[in-house]
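User: We ran a pulldown and think these components assemble together. Before we commit to crystallization trials, I'd like a predicted model of the whole complex to look at. Sequences follow.
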Amino acid sequence: MIILFSIISHSPGSIKNPPQGWPGTVLSEVESETPGPRDCDIDCIVMYGGGLTSYEAAKRAIERYGHEAVEIWFADTRTEDEDLYRFNRDVEKILNHKIIVFSQGLDIWEIFHRERFLGNSRIDPCSKFLKRVPLRKALEKQYPNRACVHCKETWERGGRTIHVLDIDGTEIKEAICKKCNYEDSQYARSLKHLEKLISEEGENSNRARIAIRPIQNRVERCSEDGKFVRVVLGMDIIQDCDRLHRAKSYWRPFVNWFPLAEPPFGNKTRIIEELRSIGIKEPRLYGAGFAHNNCGGFCVKAGRGQMVHLLKTLPERYLEHERKELEFQEFIGSEVTILTETRNGEKRNLTLRELRKRAEAGEDFRFEEGTACACLNPLSPEVDEIAW
Ligand code: SF4
Ligand SMILES: [Zn+2]
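Assistant: Here's a predicted model for the assembly, 388 residues in total across the polymer chains.
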């Protein structure tokens, strides 16, 4: 419940106050956060992945902010299903909006070779170098400045900040607007209250986490010409609660907008129906039972169930990855694998070849839909700094 509150507190149109009796708080302490910039001062960068939910997010961003304010960014892993590119072309047509493609000229296997590291459920150099790093770099470049959303005063690098620890241990660091601290008594009062709480209870307290809200996002990233930005992600609060929270931590100091976590709530079935009604077919992987349209149904973060599902639905693609895994072992001189399994308390490597043979021999591997890719949400940008 605390996690849920922490997440939704940053979405436009979200619940502004926690329920009565919120742990560790008295209601008088709960103030609403800084009203964000006006819609006309906001750009939207939609992190589009080629699937249904990111299409819906792009659509809602254009509806709310207009074509001028929206850019749709797509990071191409060159490992995508061919039908994804057809869907992207359809999306460009129906939204009447160009998709900007980020391609590093490499596919996921070329990244593993370059980095001399095979991706697995915990570490994903593929999405790091093909998606997160280039997208984040572009964002930093396009929005290099900081300014107050209230008075528009520029916040200079090295200016005053304050921080508390979020419930997952990540740091919530907020820049402070000097001008508002002089001129806006409510802001100044909130800041004083937070400082007092931190000195009494430390940075890792529920009350400090709540008290930082009124000053949160007062200073935001902006472009050279003063436009603030929303990083738009197509996750919804029902299915993606945990991923939503991680995304918010990861994209700091940029502010996210999750349009699908706001009404009208809808699921993939509704999006499919709407698309079909205008003559557009959904990406074919959904019909084949995959929850995401990433990397052609393959993913180093997927479990055995999804891999076997890939084997059953797109056997040639599975065999290609199986061959590439063995090729990588030869290249690196070690029997590393994407998958591992624990047997009798002992963890062991599991090649795609062995998995295929066992599946062909009749062993059952449960496919838990929706547990795969979290490409755009590692714990924090610092995680991406760690080399292997
Ligand atoms: S979908 Fe999986 S394999 Fe593809 S880039 Fe993302 S983490 Fe890597
Ligand atoms: Zn200000």
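The chain has three domains: 39-146+224-268, 150-219, 302-360. That may be worth checking against your pulldown data before setting up trials.

User: Thanks, that helps.
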